[in-house]
Amino acid sequence: MRKMKKTNILLLLILIGSVSIALGQEKQISMSNNDNAVRSKIAAVNNFKLPYSVEIFSGNERDQKNRTVVNGLTVKGVIVSSAVSSVGNLAGGAGGGASSASYAATGRMSNSKVKITISQPETGDEASTITDENGNFSVTLKHDTLHTIYVNGVEYGQVKLKTKHDTAKNSVSNIR
Question: Are 156 and 68 in contact (CB under 8 A)?
Answer without folding.
Answer: no
